[in-house]
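Quick log. Single chain, no ligands specified.
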Amino acid sequence: MTELRWKGAGAASQAARVQPAGELYDTLAELSNHMKAHFNRVAQPFGLPSPCAKAICLIEGSISMKELGARIHCDGSFVTSIADALEERGLVRRETDHEDRRIKNLVLTRKGAELRSRLMHELFDDLPGMRNLTESERDSFLALLRKMVDPQNE
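-> predicted structure:
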């Protein structure tokens, strides 16, 4: 994918407004690419396709298949495929929701919980770029990212 560069965009006043946003976009896209590559590198030795590894990371306690789909941004049929693959590997089990029998929840098995622990450890012990930030910078960066993605700010 070609990286966009925003320098020199149109008139000077337009460039002054667009350049910081464009550079932010470029830098976040670059960080996102580093994160995806890191995630794929870490997940590969566990023998899990990326969507399954991502699902394992998101399952804490019990999560409905619908909620899992929303969190990994995919439709229900794909969540079913992920759940099937994880169930076949003995990493999750489906349970009927206690409050609404129509809802199916995914729960990690002991094997799944152990894999999740190892996966999370590998993923977050050396997250790209994090060692370059102080604890205070990490806290500030997280606060800024949360502010950017807050739906109330749209």
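The mean pLDDT is 86.
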